[in-house]
Amino acid sequence: WQAHLPWIDAINSLKKQRNAVILAHNYQPPEIFHTVADMTGDSLALAQQAARAEAKVILQCGVHFMAETSKILCPEKTVLMPDLAAGCSLAESITAQDVRLLKAKYPGVPVVTYVNTSADVKAESDVCCTSANAVHIVESLGVDKVIFLPDKYLGQYVASKTEVKVILWEGACEVHERFTGEELRSYRRAHGNVRILAHPECPPDVLQEADFVGSTAAMISHLSERRPRRVVMITECSMSDNVSVEFPDIEFTRPCNLCPHMRRITLPRIHDALLHMRHEVHVDPAIAQRARQAVERMLAFGR
Ligand code: 13P
Ligand code: SF4
Questions:
Q1: Is 259 marked as binding a ligand?
Q2: Is 25 known to sit in a ligand binding site?
Q3: Closest Cα to residue 31, out of 55, 54, 6, 51?
Q4: Where is [4Fe-4S] cluster bound in this sequence (predicted)?
């Protein structure tokens, strides 16, 4: 921590000078999450907070689609990222042209798009969702069939929770798809009383073995309510690191899959972003206007 302190002090004073607010996803490391971040949370909470932000500058500590969502919701604000190369395997798995072809193949079927997508893809969609509200949003549409993009595992999980028929795309999160059901069984063998929480971006055999499935924020709420003695969080590494500070009485076993994109965000890069007012995230205004409808429709549903 000593090594981080000069960066943290410098960032906090630059934030005031620039009238900036820092939004950090739950997968950001503790030295960012617990120090310079003004607002933290899951993808849904970050979108909600961006929509309400009063500062002139939003510095997004997360990946590119999160910064684009902030820009879509706040076109008049300057949205910065410490590193524009922080992408996402889900966002990369599908293009706007892919969505147009799907819509031509299934005319009239609403497109429900996970926020882990580009602004171009959102612009082709009827409504967005996050892992916190996907089932709720699919059901709220009052239809018997939806196209669900792009995460096949989240889509399969949604399909298992609803009567609505779900047409899937072949996208996957490179972090969550690496977990296996056998890995979870080995944690149970090693620690009989362990409570296993898994993110719905994991494959079905993993979700079947888990005691609880939910978004990163839902996992935190679950821990608050249940207060288990020992926990495994089947998700990105930083989650357990961040959450263990809040729950010192819980023992966290840490199976760890790192998101290389989230790791691109570092204190020196945050500092330089505020110092040089870089790297600005732009979204074509015509695309942003169409994408905003899909995101705002999701925000109207809530969690
Ligand atoms: P949530 O925080 O919405 O659960 O998203 C998980 C994720 O993989 C974000 O990149
Ligand atoms: Fe994308 Fe997965 Fe990384 Fe989240 S954890 S940003 S879904 S690659």
A1: yes
A2: yes
A3: 6
A4: 88, 173, 259
